[in-house]
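Lab notebook, bench 4. Still working through the backlog of constructs that have no structural model yet. Next entry is a single chain of 339 residues. Request: give me the structure tokens for it.
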Amino acid sequence: MKILVTGGLGFIGSHTVVELQNEGFDVVVVDNLSNSSINVLDGIEAITKKRPFFEEFDLREKPKVEAFFRKHQDIAGVIHFAASKAVGESVEAPLLYYENNLGVLVYILQELKKKGSSNFIFSSSCTVYGQADKMPITESAPIKPAESPYGNTKQVGEEIIRDTCRVNQGIHAIALRYFNPIGAHPSGKIGELPMGVPQNLVPFITQTGIGLREQLSVFGDDYPTEDGTCIRDYIHVVDLAKAHVRALQRLLEGKNESNYEVFNLGTGKGSSVLEVIQSFERVSGKKLNYKIVDRRPGDVVQAYADTTKANKVLGWKAKSTLDDAMRSAWEWEKIIRKS
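Model written out:
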């Protein structure tokens, strides 16, 4: 079966392409390389011994999207990662985020509507919950007002898909709400490649550990948590990638209970910023240079998943520990600094 992976050379996308090819799927990747590298194709091929078919273009160009689907009429499913993803940048450039994250989604769904029958996996986020009232967070938790344009695009994106599925019964979709993906493939062939200054905690930690950054800032130690720092659910990217394959298989096998479903993807365990730093220090044997600074606007106090639904319904469970994920992230950091 041929599967389209948009943004398939990005961090989560590339790991998902690997898992799809390991399961025997034929993968077509579309990526505009705005936040990824063409060299990731080599990494995927080195791991799976198969090079995915690749087309480079910007999905915001509707005529190119239409031409692509005319050319590839045998696509059995789409996993949609292509989107801008930095919270801070979205605050500074909201129109870019609304165009890229919502316009592209509409164009793809329009093409799937033409097909009559299609399967669609959406890369969503726990940001849709905002600061949830209860921990752990279940899929039935209320959707709070978004803290950023990025978060809003995930909320509105889910609404667009749900409304589309309601009137187009041939479109079968699953929205996967991930918590905090970290780590790298154990082969050391692919991993996270942030452009410029990292927006996420773990690559900033590893870049500080290797000397690329002078110091890590910890935003606040006065939150109502055990050590005063924010708590998140950190999931190994390989575990996350495997969940996408399970979700796709669920749709392809017709096991979905409705044509729009939602699943949380996390470990079910929250870790504080200081616990993540301590994990890095354990696996690397290095002391990290960090300092406590003022809180950062928009940060929720804590967010970690109730994964019961994904565990029972998808038959998927995260297997890697925080130390496993941090070790792979550190090994990846050392490899890319040597290359």
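Notes after review: The longest strand covers residues 118-125. The longest helix spans residues 94-115. Flag for follow-up if needed.
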